[in-house]
């Protein structure tokens, strides 16, 4: 179908494009027609053989292979000034006899008259035939008179020896009984520049009809002669390898089968040693052991597809692997290299494609699933391997006729890549689901009004910068674009150079539907108007493309793609933090198409309240919280493809947020500390309004920042003494706020920090009368491999460390230290799922489980000092007011064995102390806390509550333990003591308050239930109460672990009134025991002198 319309020809001077002069792109449309696209021509050229119909093509820099609709293999070798010539040679052998001299009559034990050089294989002249019709002889056979390396015209090319086999020489001796000479003949490949059918193996039919083909391996060896390795897939799902392909023999020799455990649907080979296949069931296999000495490889490794739908296509490059799933989604495999051909995880890439193809330097080409357009992945570099956006290849078909109505010659140097392109996602370094593929459309220009508009635009006032790109927006979307541009920053609104420009950061929210494409834009250039009538054939719908022979230089400026790109968002803007404006807006990358309106999710830097690292779908992700997002329980999620990018952006955004609030590098002594389930340590700088009874600071407005560490819990006080316990029960002391001799310079602060934790999974089994305990459960049972709750499937293969920063340091092993005990094989038994498990089998136990553990380790640096050598499970520091001065700060702890310890020598200048003092107990303990007035409360492992009497500054260990009755029918697990309040949490997540505490009777009188839904509690030096809540009312899907503040706590009302829910989502620990900032009092200060600590009689007013 041909369309006639009037166009305006835009001419501009283009620098040399990034496409190499000898590179070529091949494509096949849905009708089986093959096309090629050269950089110099700029148009799609159809193959010369109009009867040839192709299904698949695969290219290299020297040739292109294809599968025809007749399932035969075709080869196209690029034209070259150097012909492809192959030398055929054979040897003529003779023996001397006394009658006739040298004749071709040989002994029965001799070699044949015509053989190869070794003499083992017969090779008569008539046995040499052309391998296919693609070759021709360059003359007849002739004798090689240079066999021995020296010129001789008298010997006739003969070489002499005593017998076969022996060393042949040119000199004839008296004992030379045999002789030979070499015959040569050359054949030349004559099918250069055309598609030729690859001959059958020795005139035999191929094993099976082929359905897919891929070539690669040409960069596997450093030798000048490049070998190409060809792989093919047959209709029966078998994999085949073509041997003998080299520069002088492009057709190869024969097909050899490769063993594959399952049926193969598609194959892709990289330029080096990577080979992946897609199986019929959607799974993927990676070939291992491929090298120049073993190009066929040795074994297969199974790779799970990116999603449950399964993979349908895979494309392999030098060190990258891309895939397309059955829902046409595009995925990138990170961590792929020669040593790890399977990679480490999948990253979702925006756009929907039918297939993908890799270029020689990992450039990506593809065919869109909806519009069947050829696309190129723009922005792929060695550091940004996923690129930034998809660019449509809109070159016209060669042979389009044109009629000039203005006597102006129509030039044909149009760009290969033109028309509408997708503006690159300016935050693509953060997000993995970038823009979708734009719908290509050719605007119909049918009147002179558009010409007038262009002329008037060209004659615009001189103050308009000519280099600024003006977006081309449809009429019905102009108003929407203006509204959108008024609320967000635009690259075109950058300063004129007087200030450091800021790029817009796209904060991508990984929730909801896939973001739609960004607004298309076409750059405006100086133009020359030509009015031509062009008869143009529409581009066909494409079915396949190969970029294996199309080399795009990643270092060149991509002018040929008509992209006005401000460049990739780079952490190089870090030095501009000094000029940070607190109103700088960070645009969100979630663009939702709702009633054709583009929606941008953004967050003002000053309104960001937390940046929390999370691990989501194998991506390096951080959750961005704002007050509104905290209320909605829906943070913005940012994802990066690599850990390096993640660390850079997390540090950059943290510094930006801290700079907008005037916060220093290290937390203050009054800071509140918290720990997430991943071990990340977060701090908040409190203000006097945080605990002000008149107007509380809402919890969702609290700003949390991360401190370098990975801990299980952390405790502090207002003197700057901060202790933490890692998952491996190692004690650590924070030195970032120290002012003593140990804190001279940052070089002494940052030390190597490591933590080891165990990851647990459960193996579940059910008993049946026939086979006993098996892994065949009921349909209503939990997964046979699950987590502790049984709601999530956790196998040994799919279970990963808590985050990518952790690495495995052991293998899976049965854990015998499970609460409740186990039998000798590690099993626990119960009547059904879920009930209480025990370590012995009874007649009523129909299910059993055992826990498997695997250790992982993390290593980083931070201002922490290790406190050896005793492993701890709990620690507490005396809370005191800011004006308090103590010679020694009391620190109590519980060892891993349950012993109670008291740390001696702890001061603000020596927060790690000197030594441990053992405090005697009758049983192991699990929780301990010291409050105002040196009140020490503890909980034993059986839930019994104890109070330590006579503890003081002069007697830091106290005298004896007093048993405190527990709440009725409840077992306590954690206790926290403030100035005059004691709170505890039981095993059923209930919060209890101890009534009747007085200086004369510090043990109190009774327990009062305050609330349920509590995981942990922390009581500060002002008796402020904060908890980690299990669930948030109204948000049942919210993960356990939310920071909550008790409102209405007053001296006369220590139990408070209600809860204020703050940031949440798997926070596990909180400490407010360093926050002693009191709100300013309205009452005037008393003229009486203040009392010293010794005059308070045990009350924690001064301490």
From TrEMBL:
<dbReference type="Pfam" id="PF06462">
    <property type="entry name" value="Hyd_WA"/>
</dbReference>
<protein>
    <submittedName>
        <fullName>Tectonin beta-propeller repeat containing 1</fullName>
    </submittedName>
</protein>
<dbReference type="InterPro" id="IPR006624">
    <property type="entry name" value="Beta-propeller_rpt_TECPR"/>
</dbReference>
<dbReference type="GO" id="GO:0098588">
    <property type="term" value="C:bounding membrane of organelle"/>
</dbReference>
<dbReference type="InterPro" id="IPR006614">
    <property type="entry name" value="Peroxin/Ferlin"/>
</dbReference>
<feature type="compositionally biased region" description="Polar residues">
    <location>
        <begin position="1089"/>
        <end position="1103"/>
    </location>
</feature>
<feature type="domain" description="Peroxin/Ferlin">
    <location>
        <begin position="826"/>
        <end position="859"/>
    </location>
</feature>
<keyword id="KW-0677">Repeat</keyword>
<comment type="similarity">
    <text>Belongs to the TECPR1 family.</text>
</comment>
<feature type="domain" description="Peroxin/Ferlin">
    <location>
        <begin position="83"/>
        <end position="144"/>
    </location>
</feature>
<feature type="region of interest" description="Disordered">
    <location>
        <begin position="457"/>
        <end position="520"/>
    </location>
</feature>
<feature type="domain" description="Peroxin/Ferlin">
    <location>
        <begin position="157"/>
        <end position="190"/>
    </location>
</feature>
<dbReference type="InterPro" id="IPR010482">
    <property type="entry name" value="TECPR1-like_DysF"/>
</dbReference>
<dbReference type="Pfam" id="PF06398">
    <property type="entry name" value="Pex24p"/>
</dbReference>
<feature type="region of interest" description="Disordered">
    <location>
        <begin position="1080"/>
        <end position="1103"/>
    </location>
</feature>
<feature type="region of interest" description="Disordered">
    <location>
        <begin position="423"/>
        <end position="443"/>
    </location>
</feature>
<dbReference type="InterPro" id="IPR051513">
    <property type="entry name" value="Tectonin_beta-prop"/>
</dbReference>
<dbReference type="GO" id="GO:0005737">
    <property type="term" value="C:cytoplasm"/>
</dbReference>
<feature type="domain" description="Peroxin/Ferlin">
    <location>
        <begin position="754"/>
        <end position="815"/>
    </location>
</feature>
<feature type="compositionally biased region" description="Low complexity">
    <location>
        <begin position="484"/>
        <end position="499"/>
    </location>
</feature>
């Amino acid at each position: 179908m041909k369309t006639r319309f009037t166009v305006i020809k835009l001419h501009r001077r283009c620098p040399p494009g990034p496409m190499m002069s000898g590179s070529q792109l091949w494509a096949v449309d849905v009708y089986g027609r093959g096309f090629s696209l050269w950089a110099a021509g700029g148009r799609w050229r159809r193959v010369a053989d109009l009867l040839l119909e192709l299904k698949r093509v695969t290219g290299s820099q020297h040739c292109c292979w294809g599968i025809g609709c007749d399932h035969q293999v075709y080869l196209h070798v690029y034209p070259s000034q150097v012909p492809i010539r192959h030398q055929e040679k054979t040897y003529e052998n003779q023996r001397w006899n006394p009658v006739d001299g040298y004749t071709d009559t040989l002994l029965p034990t001799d070699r044949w008259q015509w053989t190869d050089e070794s003499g083992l294989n017969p090779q008569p002249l008539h046995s040499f035939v052309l391998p296919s019709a693609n070759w021709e002889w360059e003359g007849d056979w002739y004798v090689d008179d240079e066999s021995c390396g020296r010129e001789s015209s008298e010997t006739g090319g003969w070489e002499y020896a005593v017998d076969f086999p022996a060393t042949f020489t040119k000199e004839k001796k008296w004992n030379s009984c045999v002789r030979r000479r070499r015959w040569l003949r050359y054949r030349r490949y004559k099918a250069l520049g055309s598609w030729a059918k690859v001959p059958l193996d020795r005139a035999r039919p191929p094993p099976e009809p082929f359905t897919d083909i891929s070539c690669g391996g040409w960069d596997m060896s450093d030798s000048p002669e490049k070998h190409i390795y060809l792989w093919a897939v047959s209709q029966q799902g078998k994999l085949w390898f073509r041997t003998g392909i080299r520069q002088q023999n492009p057709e190869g020799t024969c097909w050899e089968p490769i063993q594959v455990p399952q049926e193969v649907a598609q194959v892709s080979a990289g330029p080096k040693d990577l080979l992946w296949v897609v199986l019929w069931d959607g799974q993927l296999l990676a070939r291992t052991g491929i090298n120049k000495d073993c190009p066929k490889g040795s074994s297969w490794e199974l790779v799970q597809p990116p999603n449950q739908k399964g993979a349908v296509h895979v494309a392999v490059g030098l060190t990258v692997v891309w895939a397309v799933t059955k829902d046409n989604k595009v995925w990138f495999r990170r961590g792929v290299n020669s040593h790890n051909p399977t990679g480490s995880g999948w990253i979702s890439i925006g756009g929907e494609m039918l297939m993908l193809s890799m270029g020689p330097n990992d450039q990506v080409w593809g065919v869109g699933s909806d519009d069947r357009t050829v696309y190129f992945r723009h922005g792929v570099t060695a550091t940004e391997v996923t690129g930034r956006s998809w660019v449509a290849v809109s070159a016209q078909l060669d042979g389009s006729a044109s009629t000039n109505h203005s006597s102006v010659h129509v030039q044909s140097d149009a760009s290969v890549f033109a028309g509408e392109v997708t503006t690159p996602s300016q935050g693509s370094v953060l997000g993995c689901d970038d823009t979708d593929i734009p719908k290509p459309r050719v605007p119909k220009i049918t009147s002179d009004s558009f010409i007038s508009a262009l002329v008037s635009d060209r004659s615009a006032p001189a103050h308009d910068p000519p280099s600024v790109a003006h977006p081309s927006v449809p009429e019905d979307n102009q108003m929407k674009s203006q509204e959108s541009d008024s609320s967000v920053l635009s690259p075109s609104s950058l300063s004129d150079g007087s200030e450091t420009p800021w790029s817009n950061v796209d904060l991508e929210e990984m929730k909801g539907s896939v973001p739609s494409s960004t607004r298309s834009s076409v750059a405006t250039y100086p133009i020359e108007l030509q009015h031509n009538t062009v008869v143009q054939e529409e581009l066909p719908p494409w079915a396949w493309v190969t970029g294996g022979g199309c080399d795009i230089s990643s270092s060149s400026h991509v002018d040929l793609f008509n992209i006005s790109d401000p460049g990739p968002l780079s952490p190089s803007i870090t030095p501009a933090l000094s000029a940070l404006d607190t109103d700088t807006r960070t645009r969100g990358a979630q663009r939702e198409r709702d009633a054709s309106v583009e929606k941008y999710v953004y967050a003002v830097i000053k309104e960001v309240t937390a940046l929390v690292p999370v691990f989501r779908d194998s991506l390096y992700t951080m959750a961005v919280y704002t007050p509104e997002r905290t209320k909605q329980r829906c943070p913005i999620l940012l994802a990066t493809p690599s850990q390096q990018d993640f660390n850079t952006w997390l540090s950059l955004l943290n510094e930006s947020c801290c700079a907008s609030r005037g916060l220093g590098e290290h937390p203050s002594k009054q800071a509140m500390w918290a720990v997430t389930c991943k071990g990340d340590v977060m701090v908040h700088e409190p203000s006097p309004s945080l605990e002000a009874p008149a107007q509380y600071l809402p919890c969702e407005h609290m700003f949390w920042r991360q401190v370098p560490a990975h801990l299980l819990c952390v405790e502090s006080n207002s003197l700057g003494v901060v202790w933490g316990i890692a998952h491996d029960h190692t004690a650590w002391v924070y030195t970032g706020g120290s002012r003593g001799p140990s804190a001279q310079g940052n070089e002494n602060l940052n030390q190597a920090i490591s933590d080891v934790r165990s990851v647990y999974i459960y193996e579940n089994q059910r008993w049946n009368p026939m086979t006993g305990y098996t892994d065949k459960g009921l349909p209503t049972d939990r997964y046979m491999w699950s987590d502790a709750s049984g709601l999530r499937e956790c196998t040994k293969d799919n279970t990963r460390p808590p985050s990518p920063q952790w690495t495995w340091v052991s293998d899976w092993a049965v854990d015998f230290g499970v609460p409740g005990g186990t039998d000798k094989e590690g099993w626990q038994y119960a009547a059904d799922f879920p009930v209480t498990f025990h370590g012995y089998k009874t007649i009523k136990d129909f299910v059993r489980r055992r826990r498997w553990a695997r250790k992982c380790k993390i290593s980083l640096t931070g201002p922490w000092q290790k406190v050896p050598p005793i492993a701890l499970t709990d620690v507490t520091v005396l809370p005191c007011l800011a004006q308090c001065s103590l010679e020694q700060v009391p620190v109590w702890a519980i060892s891993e064995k349950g012993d109670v310890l008291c740390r001696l020598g702890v001061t603000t200048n020596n927060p790690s102390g000197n030594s441990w003092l053992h405090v005697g107990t009758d049983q192991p303990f699990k929780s301990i806390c010291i409050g105002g007035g040196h009140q020490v409360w503890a909980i034993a492992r059986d839930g019994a509550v104890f109070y330590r009497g006579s503890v003081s500054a002069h007697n830091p260990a106290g005298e004896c333990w007093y048993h405190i009755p527990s709440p009725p029918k409840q077992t306590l697990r954690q206790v926290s003591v403030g100035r005059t309040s004691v709170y505890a949490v039981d095993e059923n997540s209930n919060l209890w308050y101890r009534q009747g505490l007085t200086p004369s009777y510090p043990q109190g009188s009774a327990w009062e239930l305050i609330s349920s839904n509590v995981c942990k509690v922390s009581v500060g030096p002002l008796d402020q109460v904060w908890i980690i809540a299990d669930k948030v009312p109204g948000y049942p899907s919210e993960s356990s672990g939310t920071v909550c503040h008790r409102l209405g706590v007053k001296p006369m009302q220590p139990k408070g009134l209600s809860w204020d829910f703050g940031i949440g989502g798997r926070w596990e620990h909180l400490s407010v025991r360093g926050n002693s900032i009191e709100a300013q009092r309205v009452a005037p200060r008393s003229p009486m002198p203040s009392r010293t600590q010794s005059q308070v009689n045990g009350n924690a007013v001064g301490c």
